[in-house]
């Protein structure tokens, strides 16, 4: 029972990671800006230590292999996510439980990764929706464990 929930949580996180990878691979400006900020900060740190000169023009072509890497990461995360979701379906007491757990995990992971990577914030209505989803998840988990206890009592 616990294994299905863990697989579902991991599947949700990997789905969010795949979404972030897609956003990074298709949004050229974000990777270019990230590269330029990194080069500037490295140049400042390295100039104090080694007086190394880093050319910011490298970011004009460096975003292309980074985008390809993010595209590859998108496919890998999706493949592993579907594997974990299939295992969650197999180990859960119901498909609804695995689906709702994966969805809730995906929403929360998307919010976290969006805030950390892209600096996104969400409106109060979005958080109310997440709270209602999590409340439904807890009700679903509670009712499925009670159903299993009733089934055991009926068998006795």
From TrEMBL:
Keyword annotations: Membrane, Signal, Transmembrane, Transmembrane helix
SUPFAM superfamilies, per the entry: Multidrug resistance efflux transporter EmrE (SSF103481)
Segments traversing the membrane: 64-86, 98-118, 124-140
Signal peptide: 1-22
Name this protein carries in UniProt: Transmembrane protein 42a
Species for this entry: Astyanax mexicanus (Blind cave fish)
């Amino acid at each position: 029972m616990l294994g299905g929930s863990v697989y579902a949580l991991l599947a949700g996180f990997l789905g969010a990671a795949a979404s972030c990878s897609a956003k990074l691979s298709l949004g050229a400006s974000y990777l270019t800006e990230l590269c330029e900020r990194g080069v500037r900060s490295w140049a400042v740190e390295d100039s104090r230590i080694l007086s190394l000169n880093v050319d910011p023009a490298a970011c004009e072509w460096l975003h292309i292999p980074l985008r390809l890497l993010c595209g590859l990461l998108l496919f890998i995360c999706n493949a592993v996510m579907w594997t974990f979701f299939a295992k969650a379906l197999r180990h859960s007491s119901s498909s609804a439980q695995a689906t709702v757990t994966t969805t809730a995990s995906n929403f929360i992971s998307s919010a976290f990764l969006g805030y950390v990577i892209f600096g996104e914030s969400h409106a109060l209505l979005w958080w109310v929706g997440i709270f209602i989803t999590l409340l439904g998840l807890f009700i679903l988990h509670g009712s499925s464990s009670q159903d299993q206890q009733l089934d055991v009592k009926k068998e006795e």
